[in-house]
Amino acid sequence: MRPSTPEPVTFDAPDGYRLAGHCWQHHEPTAPVVVINAATSAHSRYYARFADYLNQSGFHVVTFDYRGIGLSRHEPLQSLQAGWLDWGELDVEAALQYSQKRFAGSQLHCVGHSIGGVLVGMAPTAQSLSRIVLAGAQHAYWPDYLATKRTMMRLRWHVVMPALTALFGYFPGKRLGWLEDTPAGVVRDWHAATADFIDTFANGRGSRTLSTPALAALRARFEAVQAPILVLTSSDDPFATPQATERMLRLFSAAQIDQVTLEPLTLGLTDIGHFGYFHSRLHAGLWPQISDWLHRQA
Question: Would the CA dihedral through 242, 264, 55, 68 be positive or negative?
Fold first, then answer.
């Protein structure tokens, strides 16, 4: 299949922040629409090949960057204190609303990678989703990291990253080749992540502190998501271990869960890791199964 040309799009979050991304529009107006939520500080362009595949498989597709990342970075990051709450309640919500309005009458689906799978539950419009795919989804609670890599991962993400953020006022991930440059609030939330994701925002731990009623409302938002969820993990994903995945799924207590663990060798690969789900190496081995699963209700 020849790649299609996506259309640059912009839309405003509820607080007025301008977000940017791309849209792959299918020739069938009522085709389902899929919104892709990126991993923490991953540029939306990483998902372009997967988005193109879904588009040619019968979907409208929307990708976007969270505030402060990639196409949605408009100011020095030192002055942007955005955290996971902003990315979920405001940015993911804006992408879902934009897609719902632009493709009125189409079923609305979401694919969430890593933290992008958790953020979907923070968006009020998630209650309108027909299907959700979560790949490597978890909230970076360090005791859940893969045991053989836990020490180095904790040093990298929970010591070095916060220290550099304190020094620069944001995390300079680009120059290190780790991530996109990242707002300080996101780094604080990652560093403060607790066993219960909701508690990350209690008692001054994360980038924002929510009142007890607000914490309860956030939890209820996850519990209100009733769309079937396909959960994809890989046996060599150092973040989305079985413990981390189970912890994340407790948030979506009302959803029907289909869970699949990928084995790299079974797919003819030496590794998949945390980012391989959307690599072109899985074009034949995984992507058709995602497309088929999304089409079942469409």
Answer: positive
Tokens of 222: 């996850």
- Going by DSSP bridges, is the β-strand pair 131-135/170-171 parallel, antiparallel, or unpaired? unpaired
Taking the C-alpha atoms of residue 195 and residue 120, their distance in angstroms, rounded to an integer, is 19
Identify the CA nearest to 189 among candidates 92, 115, 241, 275: 115
Count of CB atoms situated within 10 Å of the CB of 139: 26
Q: Which CATH number fits domain 7-146+212-295: 3.40.50.1820, 3.20.20.70, 3.30.70.2190, 3.40.50.720?
A: 3.40.50.1820
Determine the 3-state secondary structure of 93 from DSSP: helix
Structural contact between residues 245 and 137, judged by C-beta atoms closer than 8 angstroms: yes
Residue closest to 189 by CA, chosen among 210, 219, 212: 210
Cα 148 to its chain centre, rounded Å, is 25
CB 276 within 8 A of CB 175: no
Structure tokens at 14: 């509820």
* Cα 81 from Cα 265, distance rounded (Å): 42
Per residue of the chain (298 residues), give pLDDT as tens: 556 789 999 999 999 999 999 999 999 999 999 999 999 999 999 999 999 999 999 999 999 999 999 999 998 999 998 999 999 999 999 999 999 999 999 999 999 999 999 999 999 999 999 999 999 999 999 999 999 999 999 999 999 999 999 999 999 999 999 999 999 999 999 999 999 999 999 988 899 999 999 999 999 999 999 999 999 999 999 999 999 999 999 999 999 999 999 999 999 999 999 999 999 999 999 999 999 999 985 4
Domain range list for the chain: 7-146+212-295
Give 58-86 as a DSSP string: T-EEEEE--TTSGGG--S-GGG----HHI
pTM of the entire predicted model? 0.96
